[in-house]
Amino acid sequence: MHLTFIFLFCRITVILGWETNNKYMVKNSVGQQVFFVAEENDCCNRQFCGPLRSFVIHVQDNIGQEVMTLTRPLKCGSCCCPCCLQELEIQSPPGNPIGYVIQNWHPFLPKYTVQNEKKEAVLKIVGPFCSCRCCADVNFDVLSMDETTKVGRISKQWTGLVREAFTDADNFGISFPMDLDVKIKAALFGACFLIDFMFFEHSK
């Protein structure tokens, strides 16, 4: 299976516990920057809602043109509230929805469904029982709808003790088949940010 790798690097650090809008540099497998990503949010939403906050994320190419927008509405993040599960809409170009990432309720595992522009389920994402792994990568598998075939992976990569403990800078990797529909690739790209906010933003 031929896979494409994209790496995301969070550039903003937390100073004295004060939340700032996240910014990311996106590089391809050979280290070339392909996108710059910036969260749009207000101070109150960041400080009082923390990792549960709604957001709009703008994805720009290297000449500053916005090529994708990721939107997450504000919803309760409790696993006891299956009626208020997280979701993300992917638009490309901005204003044109091309995919969705929908959290699925499960008592133990983080699970998501990736949908196309018609809201038809295409892929599943299944994470580990525990996302707090010391000195190791944390992997979320991209699976077929029946969860029997692995087609890709989203991973939060271990960056070393000092960096993990004292900064908000994370490395993420995404892998998927080269021939996967470009809109579904964009949805998996968006899923990486939703996973970052839900499982790793609060750990800093």
From TrEMBL:
Compartment annotation = Membrane
Q: Which SUPFAM superfamilies match?
A: Tubby C-terminal domain-like (SSF54518)
- Could you tell me which InterPro entries the record lists for this protein? Scramblase, Tubby-like_C
Q: Name one GO cellular component term.
A: plasma membrane
Record membrane topology: Single-pass type II membrane protein
> What is the documented function of this protein?
May mediate accelerated ATP-independent bidirectional transbilayer migration of phospholipids upon binding calcium ions that results in a loss of phospholipid asymmetry in the plasma membrane.
Report the family membership. Answer: Belongs to the phospholipid scramblase family.
Which cofactors, by name? Ca(2+)
The name of this protein is Phospholipid scramblase
**What top-level branch of life does the organism fall under?**
Eukaryota
Keyword terms: Calcium, Lipoprotein, Membrane, Palmitate, Phosphoprotein, Signal, Transmembrane, Transmembrane helix
What Pfam families does the entry give? Scramblase (PF03803)
Q: Which organism is it from?
A: Sinocyclocheilus grahami
GO-annotated molecular function: phospholipid scramblase activity
Secretion signal span: 1-17
